[in-house]
Amino acid sequence: MSNWKLEKSTIAIDETNHAQYQIHIYDLIPDKIDENVPTIYIQANVHGAELQGNMAIFKLLNLLEDEEIHARIRMIPNANPYATSVKMGTYTYGRFNPITGDNWNRMYLNLFAQKEGQGFISEEEIKACENKQAYKELLKNKFSEYRSYHKAYGIDENKQLFITLQELASDADIVLDLHTAGVGCRYIYGPDYLKEKMADFNFPFHLVIPPEFGGAMDEACFFPWVKFHEVHQSQNAFESYTLELGSEEVIDSKAGQIDAINIYNYLVKRGVIASDQINTKENTQYFCELKNYKGFFSPSAGFIEYHKAPGEKFKKGEKIMSVYHFDKLESLEEVISPIIAPCDGIVINHAPSSNVKRGMSILEAFTNFTLKES
After folding, report:
1. Distance (Å, rounded) from C-alpha 187 to C-alpha 168?
2. If DSSP codes are grouped into helix, strand and coil, which group holds residue 57?
């Protein structure tokens, strides 16, 4: 029998002349909170076409229906409703803001790059925070300070959304940002200090990134805690990840059940759920550092065929893609331009379209990867 109640709140996050866009926040609040158990924040669908995280949240909520939890869990499906509403024919445009052209997941606020009085956090202020709760309050105050400073002239539409999401996540000890690739497999981004812990998700592929700020949600959440523990010379237990759940423009309930079980089991391991893990297939786990995560770019315009699916390995010298030039039919040997692998690797994702222009990003792969040690 569950020991928690579900509270729903709504925030108006964006608007156009004829519509207001809201996010819906679902808080799972236990009867009694164990202060030693991490608070959880999960959001999905910041990129408009990346839908599968919503299914994972729904399935996870179903799994939790009769379970006891020891900490607050906050879930936000469809965290960027304006992005999901931008359609071009049947295609959802929503990776980039159609007004500014900015990537929706590169616009979070770096408090350490601001100016004094505009949200900046100094080393002295961090030193004055004797515990995690005091630091969380400082973060909240700095978001308010940023808002207050910019109130007279207004905050641009990108920052308005993302400061709100950062504020909603500011009480958490673990942050999960659910995304998908264009056409992709299941993989996870995590900072190098969490390399061992990220294996608890049972994802097959792990991209290990430096603990630095690059504009994405996972970085915006863990970077302040990297700074905190550097100043206090303590061990960083804060966890923040990007979970990539397959391909965009797809809702898959069966895959969503597996995604939810993997997240559920992770939360059991963190003491958040008072239950045993759910039996599921254990994946072989591969790890790749960011410097070895290689992108392929189309050498010419044309129509591309992908010979390897996400999750499949390739060997050096193997043909992994072919670009077709149907304007050269008078010379059949010039129609096909093969793209050859320069080294061994694993395809992680590729572009959703076969219609490519020169220089377009078409495929990303692990190279020089390692296996999880048993």
Report:
1. 25
2. helix
Q: CA 373: distance to chain centroid?
A: 25
Contact 172, 80 (CB under 8 A): no
Parallel/antiparallel/unpaired status of strands 19-30 and 186-191: unpaired
**Residues, the chain:** 374
Domains of the chain, with CATH numbers?
A: 4-283 (3.40.630.10), 292-369 (2.40.50.100)
Q: 232-266 pLDDT, tens per residue?
A: 999 999 999 999 999 999 999 999 999 999 999 99
**Token representation of residue 54:** 């919503």
Are 203 and 243 within 8 A, CB to CB? yes
The span from the CA of 126 to the CA of 141, in Å, is 13
Residue type, 182: G
Residue burial 5-39, b: 16+ Cβ < 10 Å; e: rest: eeeeeeeebbeeeeeebebebbbbebeeeeeebbb
Q: How would DSSP label each residue in 207-241?
A: EEE-SS--SSHHHHHHHHHHHHHHHHT-----EEE
Q: Which helix or strand (DSSP H or E) is residue 141 part of?
A: helix 132-150
What does the pLDDT read at residue 374?
A: 59
Residue 158 tokens, joined: 């990108």
Specify the residue for token string 């905050």: 155
Model pTM score: 0.97
Instruction: Tell the residue number behind the tokens 């159609």, with chain if given.
Output: 98
**118: which DSSP letter?**
T
Q: Which long-range contacts (CB under 8 A, 24 or more apart) does 185-188 make?
A: 185/244, 185/246, 185/310, 185/311, 185/347, 185/348, 185/349, 186/243, 186/244, 186/245, 186/246, 186/259, 187/244, 187/348, 188/241, 188/242, 188/243, 188/244
Cβ-based neighbour number of residue 186 at 10 Å: 24
CB 286 within 8 A of CB 205: yes
- 370 residue type, one letter: T
Mean pLDDT value across the chain: 96
Q: How many angstroms separate the CA atoms of 103 and 311, rounded? A: 25
